[in-house]
Amino acid sequence: MLAIKKIYMDYETAPVGVSHMPQFAWELVSDKKNVKQKSYELQIAKDADFTDLIYNSGKTESEESAHVYVQGTLENAKRYFVRVKAADGEEETLWSDTASFVTALAGANGEWEEGAPAWKAPFVSAETDDSYKNASKGTYVRGNFEIKKEVKEAYAFTTALGLYQFYLNGRKVGEDEMTPGWTSYRRHLLYQTYDVTEYLQKGINGAGAMLAPGWYKGVMGLTKARNNYGDQTAFTMEIVVRYTDGTTESICTDTSWTGCDSPVVFAEIYDGETYDANLEIPDWSKAETPSGNWKPVQLVFFDTEVMRAQYAAKVHVMDRIPAKRIFKTPAGDTVVDFAQNMAGRIEVTASGKPGDVIELHCFEVLDKDGNVYLDNLRAAKATMKYTFAKEGTVTWHPTFTYMGFQYALIVSYPGEPKAENFTACTLHSDMASTGKLECSNPLLNQLHHNFLWGLKSNFLDVPTDCPQRDERLGWTGDAQIFCRTATYLMNTYTFYKKWLRDLEVDQTPEGGVPHVVPNIEEGRTDGNWLLSQGPHSAAAWADAAIINPWTMYLMYGDKDILKRQYNSMKGWIDFMRAHAVDYIWNYKLQFGDWVALDAEEGSYFGATPNDLTCTAYYAYSTGLFVKMAKALGKDDVAAEYEELYSKIVKKFQDTFFDAEGNMTAQTQTAHIVALYFQLTPEKYIEKTVEGLKKLLAKENGHLVTGFVGTPYFCHALSQNHALKDAYDLLLKEDFPSWLYQVKKGATTIWEHWDGLKDDGSMWSADMNSFNHYAYGAIGEWMYRAMAGIEADPEQPGFKHAVLYPRIGGNLKYTEGNYHSIYGNVGVKWEVQGTQILLTVQIPVNTTAQIRLDQAKAVVKSDGLTFTKAADYMSAEAGSGTYHIVFEQ
Q1: Residue 429 half-sphere exposure, CB side, CA atoms within 13 Å?
Q2: Is 471 a catalytic residue?
Q3: Residues 471, 504, 642, 790: which is the catalytic one?
Q4: Lesser CB count within 10 Å: N end or C end of the chain?
Q5: Across 804-864, where does the E strand assignment appear?
Q6: What digits encode the pLDDT tens for the residues 722-733?
Q7: Strand pairing of 813-820 and 823-832?
Q8: How much is the average pLDDT of 86-94?
Q9: Confidence category of residue 463, pLDDT binned at 50, 70, 90
Q10: Is residue 625 within 8 Å of 549, Cβ to Cβ?
Q11: Which of 751, 780, 790, 815 is catalytic?
């Protein structure tokens, strides 16, 4: 039976706050094979009964069930309802379940593009004297308004300078946390949309917000500067109310609002939060006049031209993890253990009396003696503190901070703490899970767990490097390296789309890309050596401007992201071209193969020369840009940059290979990028692979690579007839290896291969995160090679997949699943003697090429016709589930 399982609008199932007509997609399911859509009918209406249509496609002959664009007139602050039915020529589905989306605010001229909204409401602040400039405290702002008629629907549009939580009539609105997130505020600020119909009441209503410094004015960045974007927190709100009589009213923040200090007496991203219940104001956001020292608010000017609507991927509490144990350390400290490294906050329950204090210090690891280890937090205090105002039992958590932790040191607690009194609440951007992978090796399963939790810990509105120390920055290198792995694990489309907008607005006028995005360090050196050397445009870091959009295009098949990022991408290529010398690219500070193990003693910079790594990325990014220009139909641009690409490749080959075909840099990373970026002369590929294998053997089969070489190591081997070597590398269990960390008890990915040494000592104190996802980029190889789930660049987004599981590693089985925009792509292989049992699942309305690794004969083809290729047999298959048996 043919049916529609799910509808997507801009890759989300229920976006709230869209500022343009979204693109549509739907997921089809069927119990038959080789099913392709022949036609569809899509309707969009103002009502759930679909009597008031704004769009009706009628029966449309089309195979497309994704990236469907429609024309229609949208209104401000309105919920629209969507349904679709489809046919395959033999069957027609019923109408799908109804989906919906909510519009944000249109632009000044009423246009519906992703531009600035026609914002009416001023920003109001409770910080009205000079003392606020260096304050870390929280504030309240509030105001009343009257609803005189029967409400049909109402939507609130809110944002802040600083962090905020929004309240109506005493209730927190929505489930969002850490809003409005972290952006380059003066160039890009997101506002949130909430359906508040059920929050309003006839008569007088109370509205309000709690505010805190957050990323906006708190202490942040390598220089530990304050007031990076401004020095005054402020809140803005517009509620659009649509009445049953057809009239509409806007309710905005204004000078009638008042403000005062909140019970949050201290809140900083790095240092945590202190809450004094003595300062609570009961019913502060209700309509009744509350107690407290309320004063008129001050209006704060902000250029609303940079504001954009956020329709999804907002930060939520995603997991609730009970404490596993409470124990005493050898030093006598009482510690809570959650048995999982993570990012978020702790919810604690305690009974106390006035003046009692709950105080916890969050941290990642124990030292070699089993004691509390805080040194790798550097200056971050990561402390949460609550003071009781009256006798009773409270359940409390911080609101305007987050910590990276597995453990918490109990500094103060009334009574005897028990494990059931503590719950860890993880915080990250809300993204649907899309990937699963399991195999017969439990260590690899734990590795998968670890890089998944690396994502969950570091995708908190921005792809950060680590969640625990006084850094937590959006390093572009980490984001680029991990991007493909992340897109297998979760639906990261909206998340990266937002972050790439920040990257674009933070580019220099010449096209340079900052080391961190948002670029909180812009214009600062403050004695910081790194920033003084060059605050932008490092190869492999800045190339996120190219590689991340390309990855999204591959995984989602979406040209919109290429259109949005086109100027940014071209700007970065042109920056490299402008600063290259005879096609060799190198510029100011380069990180090179960062923290590679072949670095000189005491250095973070790997042994591979910067000229080589920079020029390799110059070629790679230029080549990807050519492909994206072609995808956009920009043939003239593609031809120009294809010529540039050819010249860079020739220069790379002439410079970094000698006359005998040996690489001039005898490092693992040099060989890896030459192979994976396809920069090796054809006649020297085999020699380069052998050279890499020799360098690997020299290290007894271990890697000594850093940020540049590690992500591509296994690919460079498995794509060049060295699959066994790739598996052997992955499966190493001693230092340095991925599984060394696993065997040491890691639950996330470490920053350094030996963050925790064999003797229990630490790599260092100054830069030693145990939750740093970059090396989790191995996940990409596990999905693409082990499970064999690969996107086809010619038909991206898994419209046509390449299913090529690489059998090896003494694994008995591997099962991988990736939930694409079309549905689940699944591969499972099992070894039974000399035979491989292969099961593949191909979504409706898609096709795939199935490749059988090292197949000698096909025993069971399940109706498919396999032909012999160089190293495998292959068959083209339509949708459905196939069971194949072959001899290896």
Answers
A1: 28
A2: yes
A3: 471
A4: N
A5: 813-820, 823-832, 835-842, 847-853, 857-860
A6: 999 999 999 999
A7: antiparallel
A8: 96
A9: very high
A10: no
A11: 751
